[in-house]
Amino acid sequence: MASALEKNAYVHDEYNKTSPASSGDIPMEYTHEEYRKIVHRIDRRLVVIVGLMYCVSLMDRTNLSVANIAGMDKDLHLDKGFAYSIVTLVFFPTYIICQIPSTVIVRKIGPRIHLGTITIIWGAVMIAMGFVKDWPTLAGLRVLLGVLEAGFFPSCVYLLSTWYTRYEMGKRYSFFYILGCVASAFSGILAFGIMQMKGIGGLSGWRWIFVVEGLITIVLGLLGYWLLVGFPDDDKTYWGFLTERETKFIVEKVEQDRQDSVAAPFSLKAYVAAAPDYKIWLFAMLFLDTTTISYALAYFMPVILHGMNYSVGMSQCLTAPPYLFAGFNMYFAGWLGDKYHIRGPIIVWNMLLCLIGLPIVGWHSSNAWKFFGIFLVTAGANANVPTVMTYQANNIRGQWKRAFCSATLVGFGGVGGIAGSLVFRSQDRPRYINGMIACMVCAGLNIIIIGVLSLKFMRDNKKAERGEIIIEGSEDGFRYTL
């Protein structure tokens, strides 16, 4: 007997109130409350698990700063020349190069195997970092870490985008990244606690930071291998998580929203066909500029605070409040964007926070005001990471185009990581004026890019309303999100 879903019986839901092409309708066999329970089940199983795994991902790639001021700089002679900058940036070339194939691999072998396996292996690499004898060996392990982590973030972004409609993504991406911010917030405090193990097993405190955090990574990798699920159109994703009927409903819901719920068979031609679309590269530039600022903060905030005459312990612990504030700003941005179907103005607002905060950090003489400026920059830069991800996800269609766009976006984010590791040069300490100016240029460039894209999207939406063009190959009313 045909189900109500197969008969395409629908009722109106909250996502259709402002846009006829927003998210589709809920099948009549599900009440609104039942629908929300299904989505919240997906949130708990998918967003929470990838978010927890992202915690250790972000912590493991950025814990150099807390280890550095905990004695690593002296033991490995990182305080001479460009050694510290080299160790931070060598992570990114392999991280960038390996991005694009990762979104193909995760579709082929599934997120559970792909993400779980690479997380466990990079946890082992982290443990190895605790036993290095010189900085070139540490740099080599960072190169390997880049290969492994390259497969994580773009795969998570791609996986999340396949489970949710366009105006459900903002809060989910924000919550996913908020968990990463929590890791950043408490990594300094965690590192300070781990440092107290100094002398146990004959290891320095900074070495125990890598060993303990590597063990945590392996545990979460095993948890991910056990709990992660695949794509909604994959018959192997149920596992007691959703019924087959509920999963088919999710696929239908996404199909109504953007008509790309099921991936076509992979071909290299189809995968790279999105490359000539210039807006993909503008999305990537938005992410590059954003991550330049956020990585600069991640790698140098404890160093900047230490240069403000705070002790090592206080410098590590003071990294927590700005990231917690960033988490609140991030979730509010996601909620606001989903509710009012906007992304660009939120990106501009966050960049304005950076443009206010950076001069305060660089030029104000008061440590209290400098710390206030750090709050603003941290909130603006980090809140824009999920907002830019959602902005690009809302304005493209097609599974393989989505996969290509996720890979290029995060790949350019890796370029931002290279820039972020270099903009604050040791010879510019303690004020790092050149780095502040570079970050301000990135924030200003993002505002210009949003202006260009907004003009294009408004023009094309109006043309589509008049029937002059079809946006993203969709004949069912797809419109760009401003």
Features:
mainly alpha; Growth Hormone, Chain: A; globular; transmembrane transporter activity
Describe the 3D structure:
Helices cover 72% and strands 1% of the residues. The protein has a two-stranded antiparallel ribbon with strand order 1-2. The model is unreliable at 1-26 (pLDDT under 50). The protein is built from 19 helices and 2 strands. The protein has one domain: Up-down Bundle (Growth Hormone, Chain: A). Helix 5 crosses helix 18 (399-423). The chain is mainly alpha-helical and 482 residues long. GO terms for molecular function: transmembrane transporter activity. Its main location: membrane. It is a multi-pass membrane protein. Residues 46-463 form the Major facilitator superfamily (MFS) profile domain.
Q: Could you say what the CATH topology is called? A: Growth Hormone, Chain: A
| Spatial ordering of strands, largest sheet | 1-2
In which range does the helix fraction lie?
Answer: over 70%
Shape: globular
Structural class determined from secondary elements: mainly alpha
Low-confidence stretches: 1-26
CATH superfamily descriptor: MFS general substrate transporter like domains
Distance between the termini: 43 Å
Radius of gyration: 22 Å
CATH architecture classification name: Up-down Bundle
User: Strand-residue fraction?
Assistant: under 5%
How many individual β-strands?
2
CATH class: Mainly Alpha
Task: Give the integer mean of the pLDDT values.
Answer: 82
Major sheet size, sense and barrel closure = 2 strands, antiparallel
Count of folded domains: 1
Number of helices: 19
Task: Give the topology string: H per helix, E per strand.
Answer: EEHHHHHHHHHHHHHHHHHHH
InterPro entries: MFS, MFS_dom, MFS_trans_sf
Transmembrane segments: 46-70, 82-106, 113-132, 138-161, 173-194, 206-228, 280-301, 313-334, 346-365, 371-391, 403-426, 432-453
Membrane topology: Multi-pass membrane protein
Protein name: MFS general substrate transporter
